[in-house]
Design a protein that fits this description.
7 helices, disordered C terminus, elongated, mainly alpha, Growth Hormone, Chain: A
Length: about 200
């Protein structure tokens, strides 16, 4: 079966959109997170650096959480990934409502969002392709999904900067939240069988 047809039949294009969403959120937090903290809390660069160092530690926790969730849902990956994105929606809502009140709260919520996307990244780009080994498409699917994730990351670099200039940081948080909701919708409509994947 040609790869394009395999993507169409398995609706992997929907998973690719989820990967793009994950790439947009994950990489824009890494790129623009320090600027967000710097501008929303009016702190100096050295203080921002000290706070932002907590986020990579939290990212590791997100990777561990994704494995635990996947096991908890009996390896129904779509449900685990939807749960991760759903939790990120709650964290983004918290960031929108309370992130400006305290630098500690802002860092924790931003770190949670980043950690959740690192967890989603693990399931999307590693576990899902490995589940398609019986079709002999593992490397092709991994490459396709990885490409989609980096496409999202590339888009995030310029789009988020423009949004922050024109709509402010609340606009950025709303874009992150909306992107997470789009990912949930795509996962819900995806026909990939969790027993296979």
């Amino acid at each position: 079966m040609p790869f394009w047809r395999f993507i169409k039949e398995k609706k992997l294009w929907m998973i690719a959109i989820v990967c793009m969403c994950q790439g947009i959120i994950k990489d824009s937090i890494s790129l623009w997170g320090p600027a967000y903290l710097l501008e929303t809390h009016n702190i100096d660069l050295s203080s921002t650096t000290s706070y932002i160092l907590l986020i990579p530690i939290m990212n590791f926790g997100g990777i561990l959480l994704s494995g635990w969730l996947n096991k908890k849902f009996n390896y129904h990956h779509n449900i685990a990934i939807m749960t991760i994105f759903g939790t990120s929606v709650i964290a983004f809502l918290g960031l929108f409502l309370f992130g400006r009140f305290s630098i500690v709260m802002g860092v924790i919520l931003l770190g949670c969002c980043s950690a959740l996307m690192y967890g989603a990244n693990t399931l999307l780009l590693s576990v899902i392709p490995m589940g398609l080994t019986k079709y002999n498409k593992t490397s092709s699917v991994a490459g396709f999904l990885d490409f989609s994730s980096y496409m999202g990351a590339g888009m995030a670099g310029c789009i988020i900067g423009g949004i922050s200039e024109h709509l402010g940081w609340n606009g950025v948080v709303i874009i992150w939240l909306s992107t997470a909701l789009l990912a949930i919708g795509m996962l819900y409509k995806s026909s990939i069988d969790d027993e296979e994947v």
